């Protein structure tokens, strides 16, 4: 990979990692994530790259193959649900996977400095942040403290859901995931340029808490994400 996030490392250090080949293509990175999720769903995780040897091998630099912009929900631990380890995923999480300036900057860092080829927006069913925003909109009351900022960030998705006639919570979550994908690309010309050049893709995925399976709900470029998820036969094959 041409972008070697090697800050603090020693030039010329021989990497002895046994990790999978460096994934610089969006489609390969996506396939790796889907494969890991299938292992997790099937109860047969490999727990790759979590041993002391790998810890030492990646200490001189990182080459994560995917950025995960996920909800902070404690049941949505990225390395667990995608069966990955140290150095694999660059994870940015906020309640309701909101996309403010620090999130955008973190994504841009991973994509441009580390050369990460895939950005995943990861939401989930029964999301508390989306439910809180819906309750706030329904009652006309704003939550106290900084929680209001989370609700405000989700409200545009609620308005979009209302305009589209979607009122079930999981349908709203799907719209919010797609909205977050659009926000990332709309607010970050840097990311949009990387996608336009074919060096990166952005996929929105929804995770089901009970089943543990992800399914794609949005993708840029269109048609990028394909996923045949046995655990969720209703999932779209392509987005
Ligand atoms: Zn959530």
UniProtKB/TrEMBL annotation:
Keyword Zinc: yes
InterPro entries, alphabetized: Carbonic_anhydrase (IPR001765), Carbonic_anhydrase_CS (IPR015892), Carbonic_anhydrase_sf (IPR036874)
Gly residues biased stretches: 1-11
Tagged with keyword Zinc: yes
SUPFAM superfamilies linked: beta-carbonic anhydrase, cab
PROSITE patterns from the UniProt entry: PROK_CO2_ANHYDRASE_1, PROK_CO2_ANHYDRASE_2
Disordered as annotated region, ranges: 1-22
EC number: 4.2.1.1
Catalytic activity: hydrogencarbonate + H(+) = CO2 + H2O
Keywords assigned by UniProt, alphabetized: Lyase, Zinc
CDD domains: beta_CA_cladeC
Task performed by this protein: Catalyzes the reversible hydration of carbon dioxide to form bicarbonate.
Name this polypeptide is given: Carbonic anhydrase
């Amino acid at each position: 990979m041409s972008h070697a996030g090697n800050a603090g490392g020693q030039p010329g250090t021989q990497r002895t990692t046994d990790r999978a080949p460096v994934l610089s293509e969006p489609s390969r990175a996506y396939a790796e994530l889907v494969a890991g999720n299938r292992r997790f769903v099937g109860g047969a995780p490999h727990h790759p790259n979590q041993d002391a040897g790998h810890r030492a091998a990646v200490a001189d630099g990182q080459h994560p193959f995917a950025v995960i912009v996920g909800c902070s929900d404690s049941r949505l631990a990225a390395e667990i649900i995608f069966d990955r380890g140290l150095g694999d995923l660059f994870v940015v999480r906020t309640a309701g996977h909101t996309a403010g300036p620090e999130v955008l900057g973190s994504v841009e860092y991973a994509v441009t400095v580390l050369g990460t080829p895939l950005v995943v927006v990861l939401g989930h069913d029964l999301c508390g942040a989306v439910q809180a925003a819906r309750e706030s909109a329904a009652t006309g009351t704003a939550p106290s403290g900084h929680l209001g900022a989370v609700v405000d960030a989700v409200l545009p998705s609620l308005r979009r859901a209302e305009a589209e006639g979607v009122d079930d919570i999981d349908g709203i979550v799907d719209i919010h995931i797609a909205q977050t994908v659009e926000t990332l690309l709309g607010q970050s010309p840097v990311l949009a340029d990387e996608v336009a050049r074919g060096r990166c893709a952005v996929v929105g995925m929804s995770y089901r808490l009970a089943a543990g399976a992800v399914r794609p709900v949005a993708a840029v470029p269109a048609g990028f994400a394909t996923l045949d998820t046995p655990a969720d036969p209703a999932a779209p094959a392509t987005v």
